[in-house]
Specification:
The complex is a heterodimer of chains A (107) and B (112). With 107 residues, chain A is mostly beta strands. In chain A, 0% of the residues lie in helices and 54% in strands. The chains are: A mainly beta (107), B mainly beta (112). At the A-B interface, strand 5 and strand 10 of A face strand 5, strand 9 and strand 10 of B.
Amino acid sequence: QQQVKQSPQSLIVQKGGIPIINCAYENTAFDYFPWYQQFPGKGPALLIAIRPDVSEKKEGRFTISFNKSAKQFSLHIMDSQPGDSATYFCAASKGFFGAGTRLTVKP
Amino acid sequence: KAGVTQTPRYLIKTRGQQVTLSCSPISGHRSVSWYQQTPGQGLQFLFEYFSETQRNKGNFPGRFSGRQFSNSRSEMNVSTLELGDSALYLCASSLAKGFEQFFGPGTRLTVL
């Protein structure tokens, strides 16, 4: 039973585009929703996180949008760069991760 | 501040053997969690330790075990290795009550 569903599996955008990655969860007890970025050969690194009492959070070029009633949240990357090419994971609370999205930003 | 360190970084074992992986958390972090990462299953939670006690456990067989020492360092053990145990094993540390996790680089285990 997958607690957090993430889509798409992979995403290719041009430099400057705005990739959007979506996640959905079932358990309403979850109260912390982080996004992680992982480069090949490295462990995941926390990118940005949100609590369910907030509908949007921005940190630099990264924005989380959160819809509590729909139990969905998404990551937007503004002005994407080739250096953003990585795998992105959404998560809920501490131990529940989405399957990951491999993002490729073409120059 | 030094990050989370994991040793060894790479390991090759054969079926039936056992293996022990080590994790040193960030100084001051008392919670350590372990994850298995595979291309097909993504990141799956193994267990979490806090103050030398297992606080949470994922859905893995009893062949997977762990422990935490008084200095917060943690080890995980896998006995009777199977081919399907080949994976990247990640350790993450966090403050006692914090959800923010900091991951180590992982140990790549290959079972032949």
